[in-house]
Description:
Layout: H1 4-16, H2 34-38, E1 51-56, E2 58-59, E3 71-72, H3 80-96, E4 108-113, H4 121-135, E5 144-149, H5 156-166, E6 170-176, H6 180-185, H7 192-205, E7 209-215, H8 222-235, E8 239-244, H9 252-256, H10 267-283, E9 287-290, E10 293-295, H11 302-308, E11 314-316, E12 321-324, E13 327-330, H12 335-346, E14 363-366, H13 369-380, E15 387-388, H14 389-396, H15 398-409, E16 417-420, E17 426-427, E18 435-438, H16 442-445, H17 447-457
Parallel strand pairs: 1-4, 1-11, 2-3, 4-5, 5-6, 6-7, 7-8
Antiparallel strand pairs: 8-10, 9-10, 12-13, 13-14, 15-18, 16-17, 16-18
Helix pairs in contact: 1-13, 3-4, 3-12, 4-5, 5-7, 8-10, 14-15, 15-17
The structure holds iron/sulfur cluster.
Amino acid sequence: MLTRADHRIRVLLAMACARGHALLLLPKVRHYSSRVLACEGSAIPAALPTAAYVHLPFCKRRCHYCDFPIVALGESSSNAGSTMESYVDLVCQEIAAERSPSRGALQTVFFGGGTPSLIPIPLLQRIIQALEAKHGFSRDAPMEISMEMDPGTFSRDYLTEAIQSCGINRVSLGVQAFDDDLLKLCGRSHCLDDVFQSIEWIKDSLQNWSLDLISSLPHHTLASWRKSLEQAIAASPAHVSIYDLQIEQGTKFGNLYKPGMDPLPSDDDSAEFFKLGSSMLREAGYDHYEISNYARKGFQCRHNLVYWKNQGYYAYGLGSTSFVDGKRVKRSKRMREYAKFVEALAAGSPVLPESLEGSRTEAVLPESVEDRILDTVMLALRLAEGIDLRRFEAEFGSELAGILCDGLAEFVASGNVVFLDASRECTAERAGAVYGRLTDPNGFLVSNEIISRLFCLVK
Length: 459
Ligand code: SF4
């Protein structure tokens, strides 16, 4: 059974990785500390979110590994248009009914799914208008408006319209594999020709685009993975995301395969894939800025950084989770219940706190101190810049910050952790350390063990 901490980690990672295939899920963390519980909490007031995630759940069909909340439309569904229109009505209603205390201008918007590129442009425009009317768009920093797009689901004209009339300025292309057999095996609705065509159109229109791959697919070998990486690098995207396949119960892969057993690669093979991805992409000039993400200078995904830094964000749509005012609200994955939630919100009814686990309805989870510590450490250590020790101390006090430093120091000798000073140079002086970070790739590969150890220490 999942513990509350396990569940929370899965929710966070699912939100943070738009396709929900987070690399290196943490093992179970069962104990909360009396020391943690005695900590009085943050000295840093929560800022209003500047990021909004919008879930657009429609796909042509369900891929064999996917357990996301989606609506499979079929290849030629006659009522797809009205289904999508009704859904966008709901999302716009939800945005308008948002109960955030006051208006704070958005700096990033992320359309995830599902396959957002199946949504007609006029419907996308309506969502953008609803977001701007509710929150305003920042004039201080350039907006980042990202959209996940799948090969074979859009035309050149669609892309041009999305850029020109919806302000989309970043695309995340779900390539997943450069191999027709693997794409077919995964139940993807696109083929390799679609991939190359989409890449050509995107490169003609945008510089800021990400190419998304999945590693550890059935039958993946180091040689075939190397070929995929070579083709990804040859496409020259500004950003690359690599998610390690997780076998989810209830999916076709979950019924067919057991994790770590043939034809799935072993854990050791997956570690080799991770190391190869890290070394090839870094050699090609990409900064490995987060466990699963690589970017050329200036092209980190600003929206996803909000998740990794454990900052607040709005979220709208089926199955999405928002984090506003220290509360996580998880919307139902069932359309009927999501619709009821929006109806209640629009009518001004209170949103009732409920247990997240097993709940089919929305849940409000007040962010407790122990949750915040778990979230802060777990998310920050996914980032190459690591955890900001001074900020951690300001938020949770010097005693816990000292324990965290002691815990990190245990992994310095093995080369899995380094401390950095204010100028981000490595330092052996823990006293002057400003950041603690995992090394790449070895520290990242054992992040589960390190984070579990840190939690044992503060209990
Ligand atoms: S396209 Fe993405 S969201 Fe849709 S079924 Fe496939 S993996 Fe899931």
